[in-house]
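Attaching the record inline, Q. Sequence:
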Amino acid sequence: MQALHLPDWPNDEWLRLGILVLGALLLALIMRWIMHLVAHRLVKAHPLIADIHHRASRPLDWLVPLLFVMLSLRWAPTTHARLLEVLHHLLLIVFLGLFTWLVVRGISVFELVATRRFPMDTQDNLQARRVVTQVRVLGRAGDVIVIILGTAAVLLTIPGARELGASLLASAGVAGLAIGFAAKPVLGNLIAGLQIAITQPIRLDDVVIIEGEWGRIEEITGSYVSVRIWDQRRLVVPLSWFIENPFQNWTRTTSQIMGTVFLLLDYRVPLQPLREELKRLAEESPDFDGRVCILQVTDATDRAVQLRCLVSSIDSGHNFDLRCHVREGLIAYVQSHYPDALPRLRAEVERSPRPGGSHQAADSTPESQRSPSAEDGRRVER
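Structure, as predicted:
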């Protein structure tokens, strides 16, 4: 029986293509092994190479084999040219996506380097907060720009993409305006992020007062800022808000700050002993930095005098503890040494004469039976 004979050229072409792809993958694996070997040797001596290897290893694990496969397709048989063209186009789109991912990961390397070189866990971290804030905000903006460029590059590989965009722009002007208005917050936050990175009205770990809330700048992303409130809440504010609205920044140029303690006391309070006690309380506290320690009379009403104690600290957190310590100490000192200086309410009670009688007749009550509150002109203090 005669065997069925099939044409052998299709099998030869697919076998050739398979050999090319397998050879490309094998060559890519060898290349990746060499790269990992060299990187592991240089990691200990160069921390920057360690960061690059840590961030870029995952995209490169896919990018290098894909690149070799794309190169191998150039020597593929041309019998199925249409199929190979579609396959090559799909691989090109994947390659652009992986390359965009690699660039984004590379940008994050600079953030790691800045964080390691300028640690913010030191006492005087103004320079570190300035640099890290710039790097992170510019990094977020760079990520957005790279992703937009990568998406644009992918669209440009699609045949007729430009004509499609032009036709949509011409036939859907209202939709284009709607999309523009919808994208306005995104573009506004992107521009605001660049402004914040350059001018730096806020930085990471800055102490700010926003909408009456005291907190610290915890995170700056490409669209919003997270503020950690003192009671562990989080206030999320758009980036553009910091450009368009006023707010308080307590650590704009330095973290040093002065705080006030107000006391309302009687007119009979001695000031010099209180000044000495304030100085003693401030100097015994580890939160006092030794710059400012002042007690002044800032107001006087019909009932009491207002004393303002001004003390300084290295930052707002220490100053809050120092103010509480001074306030408690001064109150205890006045209670124990000068209780008469505590606030009082004064009044004068005058007894009116009886009808048809004289003051003397109205005042004929024996001294032993007279109520102290009924004496003419007697002051009553309570």
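Residues 16-171 form one domain. The longest helix spans residues 81-117.

More tomorrow.
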